[in-house]
Amino acid sequence: MMKHDFWIYIVNKLKRGESLDSSKLSTDEKDISSSDLQSDVEKIWNTIQYQASFFNPDKARAWKLINSRISKSVKTVTIPFKLIYRSVAVIILLIAISSLYIIKHSGRELPVTFQYATLNGKSKIDLPDGTQVWLAPNSEIIYASNFSPENRKIQIKGKAYLEVKKDSIHPFFVNIDQSLVKVYGTSFSINSTKEKLMVSLLSGKISFQKTSVDSPLWIKPGEAAVLNKNTGDTFIENVDAYFNALWAHEKLKIEEKNLGEVVKYLSQWYDVNITLDGNLKNKYKYTFTITTEQLDEVLRMMSRINPMEITYDKKNVNIK
Q: Structure pTM?
């Protein structure tokens, strides 16, 4: 019996629901074309998917068996190219069974990853557990579809402010760069730049680990954990945590602030670098509220009130 005829025989037997028996083939069986073979294999694939959906394996025993096989040395087998075409049916059958077993019957589904990024302006994201996250421009949040009140893990890139739903039983984990923040119901901000990573705490309780194997640093409200990315040093320092999270608020209210203070707040609100001439630092007084106004609108208003020269681009402003 030729190998090609052997595969035709197998397909026909499977079509008729008969048991496989490598006895002599009939003339009709020898006349089946390769295109018919491909069509039949596709039908077998669909049948296997349906039948495998009712398969209820002993998962513990299966994983134990798989692990024992992985630990053994693997032999390399070279398969001639011609044999690949002739063995299409077997290859598809093996892929179908192994894929269905691993994906459908491993006791869990592989989670889908959600990733949100901001280009201009800030964005607010409500997570399934009630946690709220504000993202600054050019920042990202990543979390899996299996995120839930019992499984609270996210990843942040860039700058963010979080108000985490309190849950003393299920901590909230934030991965940023190689570091880990563990949260218990808290408002805090994260700012990761090329030079450093800063985690500032407004309220609640959090711990910070430079890496997952390092001992945690506990942060109190009004403090920040700072990681110097150039030296690898980590330390705790006192900060104005409210100011660090100012950019995420719905509005910025300025009351009787001199130009130096106004520049400081505008820099944080709009996430830009503002350079101010030292002679102007303590001059003038301003009172105004910003909600959705663009930076250039505010700068034009200020220059009309008091004489000053302002030049700026998207990320840098000079005032003199």
A: 0.61
